[in-house]
């Protein structure tokens, strides 16, 4: 028989969960419900009139080949951002963990980029890679490479990925570093005495012990790449060239706030909601099984 | 002592709202920062100082798109300003918003402020009036594209800076010479869709969209894939391929290159004057926008870009009187003339142009009148009155994307414009159904 803590009556438990329920309802369920409701209409921008179109907005979206392409763009973008922000972070954390002197300074410096807002980070990278006046593009042209992210899809994608992942490395570093510190030294020392070299110890002992952190960061980074990279894309490419960097959330913004098409924008939010929901379910169902707590 | 102090405080706090109530407040939301923001502020202060019945309060609400969004969001919340600055691209959106806007001609009629619709330059006014001639919003800042020339760059490349640049054919030859003379940025542009499609169409008197460019109805379709536009874009695409036309971005990124002296020719708004004249460390001059001799024997007029002031619905009649007075003040010759001279924007009344001419401004600053002449030389036709398309900000985005495909050589001009038409029309149909 399972042992449970039980409360007598209903009032106390209800009161205890009320804040959570109220916050969720006001800030999550109500807006999400509104988005679902609005996605069934084509309203005019001023909210003076609106037309019920049923699933018309979804039909309009899914018949747009650029919208369908933006799923692929989003997948490529978030995979790259996640990898580019987690792998270097892990690498840096491992190195920092081995430092004996000066690790405090090193750690502090590494955390700085996280304080830079995505839009500002975007502008910084844009300055460096500006096709005519950027420092990096100038050096590249000295090497004979003609950098032009305003016309070249791949370069544009590369640039937004790097700019989005850059600040995120700090965040991931912090978590990996903390996790590394909690790996028991005795286990590693035992392995070392047994003759396992550094990388062997890393892959067979450290990495599995880091997996809960890595899994947490995977989820968080995917969500970040989906939703928060908007500022970077807005400042660097504006979704171009030819929508090569238009990820789903950027299209929600540009249709809703530039195009004033709130119906389509709401429908896109609903689709995004479903996509992210599915992704999280997949992550928890399949990836989490490989995680050792 | 303490009692007295409190008493005095109570009296002052009780009095101050009364003092403020005596003056009716008029909220004015605009999109200007920097030098332009200062000039707007100066205009508002001058108006406030000129009378004591109304106080205009100006606030900056971000760039053009952001200002429009702020206005729309405020209207939905019932907190709209009296006057909202909306860029020309948002014109159709505002016009369709019956119930949210109060047409300027109505405001002026009710307020009794002096207002003569005929005083405004036709090509400017035309953009913001109905087909019946009623002015819906007050033109505020209007400019038109011209060709900027870096004379030093011409000389460095061994090309005569006074050479004829009136047609694109001649510009094509000059680009060749510039390239051969070692110039690596012969031509650069700002606002590609506005200059190389919207204005190109008007200038060659061909439609950009059906239904008189959208003036005659919401059931309009893009016609930007016609032979004139395709011919121009094909030539531009070839120049891009040969490194004669350098693409720098969708907005006015090219301005930085031109002002730094890196480029020889620059197609940009006449309002680029303020920036170029203050930053350029080289000899420059202004030429009319070139046209294709193969298409027309002489060009039509170009169309405007910029913004107009919309009056929002839902305020007191007393406040609208203040709005009327303020708008009337803004259109007065003195205010307009100094605005025109300081910014390079067009004067919105013919009178302001005359005042400027009489003051000898054009002789002292050669080329500053080119934009005015280019816009007013010919009576506008149905193709050159302006554009009135819903979701136009987004359509411009689509056009930008397709143009990028032409510049990179991925698509031919015809393919790109056919695709722009198809994608743009889909948005126009949505706008039509949202505003039925």
> Judging from the principal axes of the Cα atoms, what is the shape of chain B?
globular
Span of the ends, CA to CA of chain B: 69 Å
| Strand residue content of chain B | 5-15%
The level of helicity of chain A is over 70%
Q: Could you say what the CATH architecture of the largest domain in chain B is?
A: 3-Layer(aba) Sandwich
Average the pLDDT over all residues of chain B and give the rounded result. 90
Tally the helices of chain B.
Answer: 20
Question: Runs of chain B with pLDDT <50, length 5+?
Answer: 5-20
Class computed from helices, strands and strand pairing of chain B: alpha/beta
Task: Count interface residues per chain for the largest interface.
Answer: A-B, 35 and 41 residues
Q: Could you spell the SSE succession of chain A in H and E letters?
A: HEEHHHHHHHHHHH
* DSSP strand count of chain A: 2
Strand percentage of chain A lies at under 5%
Rg of chain B, rounded, reads 23 Å
Distance between the termini of chain A: 26 Å
Mind describing the biggest β-sheet of chain B?
6 strands, mixed
3D shape of chain A: flat
